[in-house]
Amino acid sequence: MNSWLRRIGSAAGRGLSWAVTWAPAALLIGLVVDPDNSMDEMWVAIGAYPGFICGVLFSVLLGIAERGRRIDEVSLPRLAALGAAAGLPVGAFPFAVGEPTSEIPLWLLASTVIGCIASLSAGSAVGTALVSRSLRRRRLQSA
């Protein structure tokens, strides 16, 4: 039971850290896409919600694919692939449940959104691993 609680806490923590990282990125995207603030979008939330979900989903995929291995023991390309795999359903979700209201062709809008979220998720997975490796190295040096 204690192991499951630790895993759930780890997934929630990873989701929160990704949400905090993605929120400013979405704010910057909002400044480029909507410089005059006419779209009434909450750009911070647009980044934070998918960031949290991708972080949690990445944790689940990592636990399934790498049974028992820590994130700093997995290769970076494999982590990037797992991160992208976590981002694909999150990016596709709005198109599965809603109808686009944009004049942009659906194929272009969907490929842009899905590609951006999958890429950001892959980058976040690699960044998380690099931070974890750095912290582990510091702990080993201080011990």
How is this structure best described in words?
The chain has 143 residues and is an all-alpha fold. Helix content is 80%, strand content 0%. The chain has four helices and no strands. Helix 1 runs antiparallel to helix 2 (43-65), helix 2 (43-65) packs across helix 3 and helix 2 (43-65) packs across helix 4. The model has no long low-confidence stretch (mean pLDDT 89).
Q: Which tags fit this structure?
A:
143 residues, mainly alpha, elongated
Structural class: mainly alpha
| Uncertain parts | none
**SSE sequence, one letter per element:** HHHH
Q: Note the main sheet.
A: none
The count of β-strands is 0
Question: Which percent bin holds the helix content?
Answer: over 70%
Number of helices: 4
Principal-axes geometry comes out as elongated
Quaternary structure: single chain
> Roughly how many Å is the radius of gyration?
17 Å
Query: How far is it from the N-terminal to the C-terminal residue, by CA?
Result: 30 Å
What percentage of the residues does DSSP assign to strands (E)?
under 5%
Average predicted confidence as pLDDT: 89
Could you give a short description of this structure?
The chain has 143 residues and is mainly α. Helices cover 80% and strands 0% of the residues. α2 (43-65) packs across α4.
Helices and strands, with pairings:
Blueprint: H1 2-33, H2 43-65, H3 76-97, H4 106-142
Helix pairs in contact: 1-2, 2-3, 2-4, 3-4
